[in-house]
Design goal:
This protein is of the alpha/beta class. α1 runs parallel beside α3 (45-64), α8 packs antiparallel against α9 (168-184) and α14 runs antiparallel to α15.
């Protein structure tokens, strides 16, 4: 009847009513039926509002029955439509945005969660709605807690208590969350005090709907007791929580019951009851994976996994229990499955920041796996354990860059696809929005909060659209996926390329308890371990401090020599490597130092050019990961000296003037025939307009590694380009040279390295880059860059050219010994391939110079012969 009347609005409400008559998991199929049977697109605002109501109900029940990710998708769609159609007369905060933020948090997408919560907190403040403000403060505090920002969480919760009136049920939640944060700060007395306040409020009111919060309080009291070495009390509290939950199971989602069982199992592990703990974890899986049968298989099948944190937590716990039982193989099997679960979670995240948080967590798990594998390797000397350890290490190496690199390469092959084009445009829009948000936030107290909220809302809407496009691309190209480091072909590809490059990979994993070193060549994978990491870390940081200013090394040459050799020895770089080329994959604080300036043996005297620098022994190229070394490998393109873009703002007649930048430009122009933008022509607009057209980009300017609210940035004659916008660029240059200060310096993120300008440009598509690790000297940089391009256009090998440029600098008799300190020549590092490009010598100044000299010699010889014959005749 409704269809015949073309009444799409009431047709939609009818489906909602039909489902709510019997809201079971089986009946969720009604929502799919609605999508199939609706006969036309929605038109009126009333029809759209009805659809938003349907989507919010769908999101709620999908989440209730454990499908958090699909619940997110429904809520996201509802949020986007409510905004795009300018709908009203529906509490979008209560029924869509709050549960959407909670769902993001459940899966660990804390960036999306924070954006959503901050958005409705702002709306609540504008509306003067203290009820929603209180809810927002509590939910935002949960995000801060889960990302380790305990003090910020406590501040928000204390703020929530000042809002009046605070309903008793909300106050119970505030006290519970205050207790959680104090517990994680190891302030156990305060934690217990707030937990007791929460339970006393429940006793006064006895609301059935607050029972899940009471269960959480009991669970927290168990954790507090365990931290206070009261294991019996801890077991009593957790059993009390489980009894209460079992008696009121209809109030709990399956995932909540599973997480409660996981917590119980974790306490059993802490109490040494490992077998009992394993049984509890298996019980948790029965809540999460209906088809799982612990009688048939101890571990669940990865094919049954879906995006759910509780699955990952259970696998982590089982791995710990198996480790305690000395069953390393089962423990490692759990860790491998755990990464499978982690990948599913990662695929749901809207922002790179959430992935970085996840990566830091994964590092801790990887270190546990490496400990097990190293013991097995030492006991058996079986190289398969070293290979497996290397695969685990690669799992947490520069995942952001690795994913983007492989995805970008795929998108370039499909660049005419309309979906790919739409995705690329959205990425760029997101980068511009992120840059505008940062720029506004840098104004601090003068920042326009309303404008920031508007930009963030646009970002969130774009992120939802991006996800929809990504899902459409996944359906269209089902074979598109990231290479798994555990697949044997990954290591085979690395070794095949190493054979071609005559190179060895030396990869580091800087853990919290040990440093693991992997040496990979064409035939083998070797693994070693350094346990004195605190001393090594101190030495690395001390070495880094030598590059703070120009005089530090010259004033303490002996100390520098001792330290440079000791660090090289600790990193196993004093041991002979059979190949002439090294691919170095640094980690943690090792990203701060130039390996070329280490000493492979003890040095004598004070003449720098005679020191046994590592650069004299090997040609060094760095990579964020060994996988990126292979995934970015391309067939070498011919080196075109006409395809060079040089940008030199110089900043004449200002405090920023770069005195030697003009000399640098001239030296490079002598080697090339490209486009050079100097002085006022070196604008950001000109750079962005021309950057995609050139094979080589050279930026000689000022840069900052970021301070406070300001992210890393690079200056042009008219404006400053900030890191967030760089992430949205689409660059295809074969080489980028960042001839500026601290372009490789930024906040160190576990596994990813420095979040620096260099990281941004690598993310934007640059495969090969030269960048700096400190505030480099203007004069020596100009000389070094001139040397580099001369060598590069002669050989076509970037890594070798930088090595020879440094040696030329050290061997230059005009340069004083003081200026040959590594402060002057080691500041730039090369990240990229070892490929040698075919060199076009047709326009080579070196060739013309050599030919001129040759012709002059020929002329002199011929003239000499003629003169002698003439004189003899006379």
């Amino acid at each position: 009847m409704l269809r015949q009347k073309d009444d799409a609005e009431n047709y939609t409400y009818a489906f909602v009513d039909e489902y709510l008559k019997d809201p079971t998991e089986e009946n969720l199929v009604l929502f799919t039926t609605y999508e199939k049977e609706r006969w036309r697109s929605l038109i009126s605002r009333g029809e759209y509002l009805a659809y938003v109501v349907l989507l919010c109900n769908q999101g709620y029940y999908l989440t209730r029955y454990g499908d958090v990710y699909e619940g997110i998708y429904a809520y996201e769609k509802a949020s986007r439509l409510f905004t795009s159609q300018a709908l009203t007369d529906f509490d979008i905060i209560e029924y869509c945005l709050k549960p959407l933020g909670n769902n993001y948090s459940m899966l660990g997408d804390y960036t999306s969660a924070a954006n959503i919560v901050k958005g409705y907190l702002y709306l609540a403040e504008q509306q003067g709605n203290d009820k929603q403000r209180t809810s927002a403060c509590i939910n935002l505090s949960i995000i801060y807690h889960d990302t380790g920002k305990y003090q910020e969480a406590i501040r928000l919760l204390q703020q929530a208590l000042t809002m009046s009136p605070v309903p008793a049920e909300k106050k119970m939640l505030v006290y519970y969350n205050l207790a959680r944060n104090h517990a994680d700060l190891r302030e156990l007395a305060k934690a217990r005090q707030y937990a007791n306040l929460a339970t006393s409020i429940f006793r006064q009111h006895q609301w059935p709907d607050a029972l899940p919060t009471l269960v959480n309080v009991y669970t927290l009291l168990a954790a507090i007791s365990l931290a206070d070495a009261q294991s019996i009390k801890a077991l009593t509290w957790i059993e009390k929580a489980q009894t209460l939950a079992a008696a009121n199971s209809k109030l709990f989602k399956n995932r909540e019951l599973a997480k409660l069982v996981n917590t119980h199992a974790g306490i059993l592990v802490a109490c040494g009851q490992y077998r009992e703990a394993l049984a509890r974890y298996q019980h948790a899986f029965t809540w999460l994976i209906p088809q799982y049968d612990p009688v048939k298989n101890e571990l669940p099948e990865a094919s049954a996994f879906y995006a759910e944190n509780a699955i990952k937590e259970a696998l982590d716990g089982m791995a710990e229990a198996y480790t305690k039982l000395n069953d390393a193989r089962k423990s490692l099997a759990c860790y491998k499955l755990r990464f499978e679960a982690e990948d599913l979670l990662r695929d749901t995240y809207n922002y790179e920041e959430a992935k970085l948080i996840q990566q830091a967590e994964n590092r801790n798990v990887t270190e546990k796996a490496l400990e097990l594998l190293y013991v097995l390797f030492e006991e058996t000397k079986d190289s398969r354990y070293a290979i497996e350890a290397f695969q685990f290490a690669e799992r947490t190496k520069a995942m952001i860059l690795r994913e983007n690199s492989e995805d970008r390469h795929w998108r370039q092959r499909q660049e005419q696809d309309t979906l790919v084009k739409a995705e690329s445009k959205l990425r760029y829009k997101q980068a511009i929005l992120a840059s505008e948000i940062v720029t506004e936030q840098m104004r601090q107290e003068q920042a326009d909060v309303a404008y920031i909220h508007q930009l963030t809302a646009q970002q969130t809407a774009n992120a939802i659209t991006q996800k929809e496009i990504a899902q459409a691309l996944e359906k269209k190209y089902p074979a598109r996926m990231l290479a798994d480091s555990f697949q044997p072909e990954v290591i085979q590809n690395i070794q095949r390329l190493l054979q071609t490059d005559h190179a060895t990979v030396v990869e580091y994993f800087f853990g919290t308890r040990a440093l693991y070193i992997f040496r990979v060549d064409q035939n083998s994978v070797q693994m070693s371990k350094v346990e004195t990491i605190e001393l090594l870390k101190q030495n690395v940081l001390a070495l880094h401090n030598f590059f703070v200013n120009a005089s530090a090394i010259n004033n303490q040459v002996e100390q520098y020599k001792d330290l440079a050799f000791e660090v090289a020895r600790s990193l196993h770089l004093t041991k002979q490597v059979a190949t002439p080329h090294l691919i170095l994959v640094p980690d943690g604080v090792l990203n701060l130092i130039p390996f070329d300036a280490l000493l492979y043996e003890k040095a004598s005297g004070t003449t720098y050019q005679n020191f046994p620098w590592l650069l004299k022994k090997y040609t060094i190229a760095y990579q964020p990961s060994a996988s990126i070394y292979t995934s970015t490998a391309r067939h070498p393109v011919a080196l075109n000296r006409k395809s060079v873009l040089g940008v030199f703002p110089v900043f004449h007649n200002s405090a920023l003037q770069l005195d030697y930048s003009v000399k640098e430009a001239g030296d490079i122009q002598d080697q090339t025939d490209g486009l050079f933008l100097l002085n006022q022509a070196a604008t950001q607009h000109a750079f962005l307009e021309h950057a995609s057209q050139f094979q080589i980009i050279h930026l000689s300017t000022h840069a900052s590694s970021g301070t406070g609210a300001a992210p890393p940035s690079i200056m042009f004659s008219d404006s400053t380009l900030y890191l967030p916008r760089i992430y949205g660029l689409n660059l295809r240059a074969d080489l980028l040279v960042l001839s500026a200060c601290e372009t490789g310096v930024g906040v160190l993120v576990k596994g990813e390295g420095a979040i620096s300008l260099a990281h941004g440009f690598q993310f934007s598509g640059i495969r090969n880059a030269i960048f700096s690790l400190w505030k480099v000297n203007d004069n020596s940089t100009a000389t070094l860059m001139g040397n580099f391009y001369r060598q590069y256009f002669a050989s076509g090998n970037k890594a070798e050219a930088l090595r020879l440029a440094r040696q030329d600098y050290l061997n230059d008799e005009v340069i004083s010994n003081t200026s040959k300190s590594p402060y002057y020549w080691a500041g730039f590092v090369y990240y990229g391939s070892l490929e040698t490009q075919p060199v076009d010598t047709a326009f080579s100044p070196l060739l013309f110079g050599s030919l001129a000299v040759f012709l002059l010699i020929v002329f002199v010889v011929i003239y000499g012969i003629y003169k002698r014959r003439y004189n003899a005749t006379v």
